[in-house]
Amino acid sequence: MSITIIKNADLYAPESLGLNNLLICHDKITSISKESIELPSSIEHEVIDLAGDKLVPGFIDAHAHITGGGGEAGFATQVPVLPISEFTSAGVTTVVGLLGTDDTTRSMENLISRVYGLREEGMSAYCWSGGYHYPPRSLMETAKQDMVFVEPVIGIGEFAISDHRSSQPSYEEVIRLASEAHVAGLMTGKAGIVHFHLGDGERKLELLERAIKETEIPARVFNATHVNRNKALFDHACELNKLGAYIDITAFPESFNKHGYHAYQAIELAVKRDLSLNQITISSDGGGCLPEFDACGKLEHMAFGKAQILPDTLASLIREGHSLSLALSFITSNVAELLKFSHKGRIEKNRDADLVVLDANYQVKHVMALGKWHKRDGEMSIKGTFA
Ligand code: ZN
Q1: What is the pLDDT of residue 293?
Q2: How far is the CA of 361 from the centre of ligand 1 (A)?
Q3: How far does residue 262's CA lie from ligand 1's centre (Å)?
Q4: Looking at the domain assignment, is residue 387 inside a domain?
Q5: Structural domain tally of the chain?
Q6: Distance 71 CA to ligand 1 centre (A)
Q7: For residue 206, how far is its CA from the centre of ligand 1 (angstroms)?
Q8: What is the CATH number of the domain that holds 38?
Q9: Contact 241/208 with Cβ under 8 angstroms?
Q10: Gap between the Cα atoms of 78 and 68, Å rounded
Q11: In 147-215, at which residue ranges do the beta strands (DSSP E only) sit?
Q12: How far is the CA of 95 from the centre of ligand 1 (A)?
C-alpha cells in the first residue's frame, strides 16, 4: 500500500479551504487537516511539500473519443487511439469515452476495451452506450442492457439530434431512449442519462424541451452537449437549464468556434443570465476530429480535440475574473454530481485520491490519479504502454 503526505496545500475542494495537509493511503484521501500530519519512519511513506501551491480535484471529462473519433472525411481521417497521458498530462483523471458519427467501424466492444485499457494504466474511465444513431450501437441487445449489466457503461450517448449526421430520430424514439436510461439508472445507481449531441440544426433543443414539459422523465435525464456551438442554440440551452436540465459546454479550440461562444464566453453569459451554475459542465470533445477549411471551403488541415483545452479553459475563466472555485466546479464537482460519481469530483475524506497541483499560471504541475503520481513538475512519470 502506498502512503503519501501532502503538506502545505492551498486547498480548493473546489471551495477554497486555505492551507491544509492531506494523508493519501493507497487510492483514497484518508485525512485532511490544518494540523501537521506525521507518520513514524517505520511506516514507508512519501512526503511532498507544496509550499502553498493550489491543490484541486482531478478533472472529469464526460465527453472524449478515447478510441479516436473522426472518420467524417474519409477513412484516413479516423483519429488514432489516445494514450492515457493525453488525459493525465492535462489533469484529467476521470474520462467518459464515447462513439460519435462513426458508430459503424467503431464499436462498443472497442470502446469498452479502451476503457479497461485506461483503467489498467491507472486512471478512472467509463463510457456511454451508443453513438450518434438510432438504435444505439450497443454491446448487448439494447443500451439499457449495457447500462444494467456492463459496469463501465453509465448512460446513453452521444446521441445526435438537430444535426444532418443524426438518424433524424422521432420524438417517440427520443423519449423511449430517455426512459430506458432513466430506469437503468434507478436500477444501478448510475448516471442514467442521455448525453445528446447537438448539431447546428434549426430545431435546436425542441425535442428535449417538449420531452421535459410533456413527460414524467426528470429534466436531468436530458443532457445536451455542444450547446455553445452557435449563439441561438446557446440561448435555447439557457432556457433548458432554467427547466432543470444540466447543459454541457464544449471547450472548442480558439480558432475553431467561429459561430458560437468559447467556453469562457458561455460561462460569462450563464452568470449574467442567472442560470443554475451548478447544472453546467464543460467537456473537451477530445479525440474528435476538427477539420479546418480555407476561405473557399476546401479542407486545409485536420486536427483533433485535446484534453489540454480543459486547463486552458480554466486559465481563461480566471483571466476573465471568475473565482478558481467557480471555474473548477464545471470540470469537477458539477460533473461528478450529474454522473453520480460520489467518489469523485471533490477533495474530501474517503473520496478517490485524484488530485491536480496548479502552478502560479494555473498550468498543471503535478497530477495524482488514484493515489499514484502520473505527472511531477511537468514531467510525465506514467505515459501509457505505447506512448
Ligand atoms: Zn458530438
Answers
A1: 64
A2: 30
A3: 16
A4: no
A5: 2
A6: 13
A7: 18
A8: 2.30.40.10
A9: no
A10: 7
A11: 153-161, 193-198
A12: 15
How far apart CA 99 and CA 64 sit, in angstroms, is 9
* CA 217/CA 353 separation, integer angstroms: 34
pLDDT of residue 264 exceeding 90, the answer is yes
* Ion ligand 1: residue ranges with CB closer than 5 A: 158, 197
Burial per residue of 212-242, b for 16 or more beta-carbon CB atoms within 10 angstroms, e otherwise: beebebebbbbbbbbbbbbeebbebbbebbe
Q: Are residues 196 and 185 in the same domain?
A: yes
Closest by CA to 270, choosing from 129, 278, 44, is 278
Residue 282's SS3 state is: strand
How does pLDDT run across 36-78, given as a tens digit for each residue? 999 999 999 999 999 999 999 999 999 999 999 988 888 998 9
* pLDDT band per the 50, 70, 90 thresholds, residue 384: confident
CA distance 174 to 42: 60
| DSSP string computed for 190-205 | S--EEEEEE-S-TTTT
Which run of H or of E encompasses 304?
strand 299-304
User: For the chain, how long is the longest CA-to-CA vector?
Assistant: 70
Q: What is the 3-state secondary structure (H, E, C) of 8-65?
A: EEEEECCCEEEEEEEEEECCEEEEEECCCCCCCCCCCCEEEECCCCEEEECEEEEEEC
Is 285 tagged catalytic? yes
- Catalytic, out of 103, 248, 285, 312: 285
CA distance 185 to 161: 22
The Å distance, Cα 235 to ligand 1 centre, comes to 19
The reply to whether the predicted model has a pTM over 0.90 is yes
Amino acid at 99: L
222: domain CATH number is 3.20.20.140
The answer as to whether 386 is a domain residue is no
Going from the Cα of 288 to the center of ligand 1, the distance in angstroms, rounded, reads 8
* Burial class of residue 378, CB neighbours in 10 A (0-12, 13-18, 19+): exposed
For residue 161, is it within any domain? yes
Distance separating alpha carbons of residues 227 and 156, to the nearest angstrom: 18
Is 290 a residue whose pLDDT tops 90? Answer: no
Residue 7 lies in a domain: yes
Q: pLDDT tens for residues 163-187?
A: 999 999 999 999 999 999 999 999 9
Cα 22 to middle of ligand 1, angstroms: 38
